[in-house]
Write a structure and sequence with these properties.
The complex is a heterodimer. By secondary structure, chain A is mainly β. Chain A contains no helices and 11 strands. In chain B, strands 2, 4, 5, 9, 10 and 11 form a 6-stranded mixed sheet that branches. Chain B has a 5-stranded antiparallel sheet with strand order 1-3-8-7-6, with no helix packed on it. Classes of the chains: A mainly beta, B mainly beta.
């Protein structure tokens, strides 16, 4: 199983809503990542978890709150988002932090109204 | 700052060869990656270079010159399914941080 799954595929939320994005992998990878990708732009790293501990936070606003409940799961909790936060949110995993190959999930297309 | 440059778009004919160049100026260097991304899909890993030289993987080859801050991805025997965005990414430290270029949209025509 070389798959990273993400749910939901699409999400529309208002600026006062609270929602969560989920990511799961069963490859035994110990590093997991959240990226944000705007249309026709490259992915931008948001967070890195290594062995279930937050390793990198790229100065992401606190309205985005990551959580790694166990080594297979990664969540991104969303609260009080702005319309400019609308983007494709990609999850990725790798064997270890710094391992050369990152496997990406299909992403969640988020629209904030 | 970090700067990774690649052309915006390239067009080539089915069966032909296309070379996508990537130049980088980053605060650190610990490997260069190429990813393929079809519209609306996740990026998929194509290649990794950390030492100078050419890495070949089937129809795809990637080259790196660290002294010149330069890499290219060579796509041979182009197929229609190769129409996609190709992302150059530099790992700037020993951890997981990847800095992506803006991507090159390759259009393969019949």
């Amino acid at each position: 199983d070389t798959e990273v799954t993400q749910t939901p595929k699409h999400l529309v939320m208002g600026m006062t809503n609270k929602k969560s994005l989920k990511c799961e992998q069963h490859m035994g990878h110990r590093a997991m990542y959240w990226y944000k990708q705007k249309a026709k732009k490259p992915p931008e790293l948001m967070f890195v978890y290594s062995y279930e501990k937050l390793s990198i936070n790229e100065s992401v606003p606190s309205r985005f709150s990551p959580e790694c409940p166990n080594s297979s799961l990664l969540n991104l909790h969303l609260h009080a988002l702005q319309p400019e936060d609308s983007a494709l949110y990609l999850c990725a995993s790798s064997q270890e932090e710094g391992a050369y190959e990152q496997y990406f999930g299909p992403g969640t297309r988020l629209t904030v109204t | 700052g970090q700067n990774i440059d690649q052309p915006t778009e390239m067009t080539a004919t089915e069966g032909a060869i296309v070379q996508i160049n990537c130049t980088y100026q980053t605060s650190g260097f610990n490997g260069l990656f190429w990813y393929q991304q079809h519209a609306g899909e996740a990026p998929t890993f194509l290649s990794y270079n950390v030492l100078d030289g050419l890495e070949e993987k089937g129809r795809f080859s990637s080259f790196l010159s660290r002294s010149k801050g330069y890499s290219y991805l060579l796509l041979k025997e182009l197929q229609m399914k190769d129409s996609a965005s190709y992302l150059c990414a530099v790992r700037t430290d020993s951890w997981g941080k990847l800095q992506f270029g803006a991507g090159t949209q390759v259009v393969v025509t019949p």
